[in-house]
């Protein structure tokens, strides 16, 4: 165990990073799996204000996510459905296509507080159905930051051989 690693972490003792994007996305959150010495499991804690969401509606093709609602009330948008959630609810987001797209929206009057747990895949593709974007990301083993990160929209009409020498 390194000096930064601990066997136990309590999110109330961690410094949260507050951020806001546009009028709908806002959160105070922190990732802390590395503090526990975890390399293949990501763990985070988030607090989302009323009327906001902590991330866009998205789905993963490789990684899986799990959310545990600690306090507050919200709506779990999952695929084409919406589910009311509250303290003690455990939400799954398996890898898959747009039928597993998901995000949490705070529909209550107090902050929505939750834990997020996810697999850390070396390579990931995410889709964002509301905006038509996709994300392609790879990580080198042992590195926290992406070594390749691309966000784009629907694929072009180019085929596999387009632009290659001799074509």
Give structural attributes.
6-stranded antiparallel β-sheet; mainly beta; globular; Jelly Rolls
Structure report:
This protein has strands at 17-21, 25-31, 41-48, 59-60, 65-71, 74-78, 81-85, 90-93, 102-106, 112-119, 123-128, 133-138, 148-153. The protein has 167 residues and is an all-beta fold. A hairpin with a 2-residue loop joins strand 6 and strand 7. The relative contact order is 0.18. GO terms for molecular function: metal ion binding. InterPro entries: Cupin_2 (IPR013096), GPI/OXD (IPR051610), RmlC-like_jellyroll (IPR014710), RmlC_Cupin_sf (IPR011051).
Q: Which residues sit in consecutive blocks of at least 5 with pLDDT less than 50?
A: none
Largest beta-sheet characterization: 6 strands, antiparallel
Under CATH, the topology of the domain at 11-122 can be stated as: Jelly Rolls
Radius of gyration based on Cα positions: 18 Å
Give the beta-strand count: 13
Helix tally?
Answer: 0
Q: Could you give me the name of the CATH homologous superfamily of the domain at 11-122?
A: Jelly Rolls
How much is the average pLDDT?
Answer: 91
In short:
Helices cover 0% and strands 44% of the residues.
Describe the secondary-structure layout.
Elements: E1 17-21, E2 25-31, E3 41-48, E4 59-60, E5 65-71, E6 74-78, E7 81-85, E8 90-93, E9 102-106, E10 112-119, E11 123-128, E12 133-138, E13 148-153
